Amino acid sequence: MRLVRNEPTVAVLIPCFNEEHTIGDVVQRFRAALPEATVYVYDNNSRDLTALRARAAGAVVVREPRQGKGHVVRRMFADIDADIFVMSDGDGTYAPEDAAALVNALVTERADMVVGTRRGVEADAGRAGHAFGNRQFNRLYRRLFGADFSDIFSGYRAFSRRFVKSFPAVSGGFEIETEMSVHASQLMLPVVEIALDYGRRPEGSVSKLSTWRDGGKILWTFALLAKETRPLRFFGTLAALFLVSSLALMSPVLLEYAATGLVPRMPTWMLSIALSIFAMLMAATGLVLDSVARMRTEQKRMAYLSADAGRAAHTPWPSLEPLRTSA
């Protein structure tokens, strides 16, 4: 006779860069909050004792040499096999004690992603620019991709196995959370949000975010994802801008031609014609790429459905019968 476990396996994923002041405590608290889970810390070229202190606290430590959170998340999702994945930061701003609530929501709601939205994020943002940018980017997200999320930048999330193994991570930096959110919105996956307290960094721990640099990267990511997922809207907007510009330049020339029979401003006329041609090209591009985007969405959906859902999709949490016997 052998024992076969019924309950889902849980993996806690913590990407880290120079978090020696907090990572040991974070790992210990996750191990206490989810004793059945394995805690993985992926060290992203830290220049301090992050890896040593994480290993001493009981985590499995792996090094990822490509710099950037997106590279780390892509590696973690590829390497680790589990039924439930909990992702957090190593800076101590997210409470490990809330992980059980994320896991419970994931299983009971049959969701593919649970996002711990941050209460008090503005108080801890450090700089007014972070808080302001967070609000504006969330508003922009809702206008571009839908109202599924109220905090697209939260790093505290729980995922189903099906989501992790079908997520086509492309981003290299902090834009990875935006990409996750757009992926869920595009495929209309079941998602849940839970409001959680957001703590302050302890003394000696420094934020890796740059207001302008990372804000620019996120804005660029928005534009790229809008082009890839909603090309008709993206190129249609460009077509409308070109058309309006063309008509603004063309109208005075046409009025003058109607009055005098002459076209004295030939360069203006030629520019207006060029802009109208660009408008037609943008419109045609949007129509063609819209069909391509629909096909890609279908392919992503099929990849998602073909991924193994794991035991979490069929087993209540916590399992009332964690062990069963089989011959």
From TrEMBL:
Entry keyword DNA repair: no
TM region positions: 234-255, 267-292
GO molecular function terms listed in the Swiss-Prot or TrEMBL record: glycosyltransferase activity
Name by which UniProt lists this protein: Glycosyltransferase
Keywords, in A-Z order: Glycosyltransferase, Membrane, Transferase, Transmembrane, Transmembrane helix
Gene3D superfamilies: Spore Coat Polysaccharide Biosynthesis Protein SpsA, Chain A
InterPro entries attached to this UniProt entry: Glyco_trans_2-like, Glycosyltransferase_2, Nucleotide-diphossugar_trans
Species in which this protein is naturally found: Mesorhizobium liriopis
